[in-house]
Amino acid sequence: MRGAPDILVIGSGAIGICSAYYLAEQGLRVAVVEQGEIGSGCSGANAGLIVPSHSIPLATPGALGQGLKWMLKPDSPFYIKPRLDPNLWYWLWKFRKSCHPQQMHQGLSVLRDLNYASLELFKHLVVDEALPCNYRQDGWLMIYSTDEVFQKAQEEAHLLQSHDIELKILRADEALEMEPALHSEISGGIFFPDDAHLDPAKFVQALAERLRGRGVTIHTQTEVTEFTTLNGNVTAVRTTRGRFQPKQVVLAAGAWSAELVKNLGFRLPIQPAKGYSISMKKPEACPSIPLYLSEAKVAVTPLEDVLRFAGTLELSGMNFNINLHRVDAIMRAAHYFLKNVENQNMGEIWRGLRSCTPDGLPIIDRFPGYNNLFIATGHCMLGITQAPITGKLVSQLLCGQVPDVDLAPFRIDRFK
Questions:
Q1: Is a pLDDT exceeding 90 seen at residue 285?
Q2: Which of 102, 335, 384, 407 is 20 to 30 A from 181, comparing alpha carbons?
Q3: pLDDT, position 180
Q4: How much is the mean pLDDT over the chain?
Q5: What is the CATH number of domain 55-85+135-196+270-356?
Q6: Is 6 exposed, middle or buried (0-12, 13-18, 19+ CB in 10 A)?
Q7: Stretch 192-198: mean pLDDT, rounded?
Q8: What is the model's pLDDT at position 1?
């Protein structure tokens, strides 16, 4: 039997490590268990974007219809694999209900506040802990190749402006002046000056090292297999490397969270959404700021040593198969929009499973029916963006403090 820490955090991705950080800041004894290596899941090689601009929820009017149309295209940016899975159909039913305009507007306000609160924490966290993660606040430039999509994007931009998200709409020549690495065949762009980026793997690993230096124990290659419960409490957590008996448990296992709570008799409304990235050696004329190639829904992030392209949202269950049609579609977009990548080798292909809720908002709450089990998951494509604020909210929730952000929109019972 392992020791008895105050808190056991399950998962060492960005959400889990940030939760452990802020819990340790409260003076609590914290342990972390991770089925793989630190940050080896969805935090490993995503786009690394910290984007308050990305505050429109996943569930928007027309999103499901567009997704159904894209099901017939093997290289589409959004794909739902048809299968007889009751959990998928339950999730799609909830997603459809969340696509109502009023709910979308409410979700936008909630995500906007959460994202900006996290951005402020990033500014202090990276500096205070001297994290070598290539953090930069250079903004994010969204690029449009067709007039039709650019016009629709400007309507969304006005919606974001009404929620106090700063942006600038650019003509094609203005966008090309801002980023000369772009091909000239574009219609325009929208620039979000508040957005930032970093290397996600370096961020998680560096913060984990700081935690170890403060006495937090991190057990890698340690898979959780079962919760032992009694009278509304988790009394032990069984793993492939022994049992833990913490006073409180934080479940921050991303897409694996739903599987882990099955033995508690609860169906967690989470679907794993596969995303891909390709990291190549930087070309000579590399983009200087992060980009979003809008028609293809591909993010481009210049990091220290590599240029990373990331995209797609694939609802195909808990599988890690690489769909090369989608990888090729990401690279076609890169070739279409950017100079000097045509002759580059493709580079390293990565995929990860994001945890997606039907309404696009995370779950940050005490687990129903249990006094000492808490959950932080369902961050969709905003796990890195929302990691610090989620970690702080988890620590405030466990310690009975007034949270920095109202937790009501993130309660798990909203899916009843």
A1: no
A2: 384
A3: 95
A4: 93
A5: 3.30.9.10
A6: middle
A7: 98
A8: 45
Residue 12's CB is within 10 A of a number of other CB atoms, namely 31
The C-alpha atoms of residue 93 and residue 96 are separated, in whole angstroms, by: 5
3-state secondary structure of 205: helix
97: left (phi over 0), alpha (psi -120 to 50) or beta: alpha
The pLDDT score that the predictor gives to residue 254 is: 96
Give dist(CA 155, CA 60) in Å, integer.
14
pTM of the model: 0.96
Question: How far apart, in whole angstroms, are the C-alpha atoms of residue 47 and residue 309?
Answer: 7
Whole-Å CA distances, 38 to 25, 33, 103, 238, 318: 20, 9, 36, 20, 20
Structure tokens at 341: 């990548």
Q: 387 near 318, Cβ under 8 Å?
A: no
Report DSSP letters for 261-328, one per residue.
Answer: TGGGT-----EEEEEEEEEEEPPSS--SS-EEEGGGTEEEEE-SSEEEEEEEEEE--S-----HHHHH
pLDDT for residue 183 is more than 70: yes
Q: pLDDT tens digits, residue range 227-259? A: 999 999 999 999 999 999 999 999 999 999 999
What is the pLDDT, as a whole number, of residue 71?
Answer: 66
In angstroms, the CA 11 to CA 30 distance is 13
Task: Write down the domain spans for the chain.
Answer: 55-85+135-196+270-356
316 vs 66, 123, 230, 345, 364, CA distance in Å? 17, 36, 35, 28, 25
The owner of tokens 């016009």 is: 151
Q: How far apart are CA 101 and CA 62, in angstroms?
A: 10
Closest CA to 410 of 364, 369, 346: 364
Query: What confidence tier does 79 reach under pLDDT thresholds 50, 70, 90?
Result: confident
Residues 408, 364: Cα–Cα separation, whole Å: 9
Residue 256 to residue 31: CA distance in whole angstroms: 19
Residue that the structure tokens 């099955």 belong to: 262
User: Quick one: angle between helices 86-98 and 101-128, nearest 10?
Assistant: 100
Answer for the pair 35, 224: CB distance below 8 angstroms, yes or no. yes
- Dist CA 257 CA 221 (whole Å): 17
Question: Rounded mean pLDDT of 385-412?
Answer: 97
